[in-house]
């Protein structure tokens, strides 16, 4: 045991090992997922530092029985076992959390000593070393302090700067200009086309190190990110605002970015065929025509394993659940029922796995991308942009936010870090009276901030609501508390 990762071949093998009671870390991965590959390196290095634990790996789609047993719907995904039972899970590419959870389930190399991180090396990523350092501190050791690397290594900083500087106008996006993999990336591509500028692009889905590193490097947590002469302009919302106001044209002009002519635009414009295909797919005309017809047979089309009522893999089930949660009408095709479609669509879409989700003939992506888009709100916006879902009005959104918790506080900052004294007072009053409440930071959303003033006819913040009705601001809350009426008012 220790220092290696073993591939699990069956559920019986896994169950037998778990029954021994030994610590087990199990990685569900997929060969097509870059994030899985990145996390597998981290996983392998951690196995060296925690030799008393079993480190196992499962190819999620190849072992559906094991994946189903642990409700795996996206990769990378980790399950941690101890004393014969599953005690924790982790979803997503988060090296820091992985190191922390492994350390907690597996314990140190020697009793009373934290695991030394030297063997993790640069491949494990500086966030892992940072986590191990913190874990060692909690156990009374500071031996690892001198070995911990900066948050971003010099090599990664140079790599990011080199990519940013590779073109005067540089776009970091999901997918490529010919086949964007999210609505926000697609919108910025359209804007740059309208601005008639040449630009370079980088698909952040193809390199998790760049994807995660650029968030810290730019101090900008989302994508796309648009740069001009090495300087970050912003994301989709800012690009739209600058474009609509005419400022983006001026920014490009000020930085010496010349507009391309109509003839140049025709020459340089990428070919964007249905489903992201190229002219040299090698597919027969008959199969190509059939695939095009299937992709466009419904406004929202899901190619999956099994049927919506009986998915045959966790990834397909997850996308079905997401579409149902978003209340989207969709059609599906069971790729297990037709091998020609199953293999042909991989080439047609240039996407090697299933499920595949299409909206109005355009590939959105697989389970991981759809899940991420739902979590970020991108999926709903794309569906609204394409008029598949009716766009939510501001009033509807405010009502939903107000009703998201029986006691709801709209404040500056969050309860653990208020950004104004009035918000801090209300938080303290609610906590001291033992009132459970939800909160929304109005500094993060100008639309909500201004809209709520009109909606509630209350011009300042914080604003406290109970069961959808406005209680008032700081003065009223403090008056209720001083009179001993706050808790009773919020529990009627």
Automatic annotation (TrEMBL):
Any one Pfam family match given in the protein's UniProt record, by short name: Glutaredoxin
Family: Belongs to the glutaredoxin family. CGFS subfamily.
CDD domains to which the protein is assigned, alphabetical: GRX_PICOT_like, TRX_PICOT
Domain Thioredoxin: start-end pairs: 1-107
PANTHER family per UniProt: GLUTAREDOXIN FAMILY MEMBER, GLUTAREDOXIN-3
GO cellular component annotations of the record: cytosol; nucleus
Protein name listed in UniProt: Monothiol glutaredoxin-related
InterPro entries: Glutaredoxin, GRX_PICOT-like, Monothiol_GRX-rel, Thioredoxin-like_sf, Thioredoxin_domain
Gene Ontology molecular function: iron-sulfur cluster binding; metal ion binding
BP GO annotations: intracellular iron ion homeostasis
Domain of life: Eukaryota
The organism of origin for this protein: Quillaja saponaria
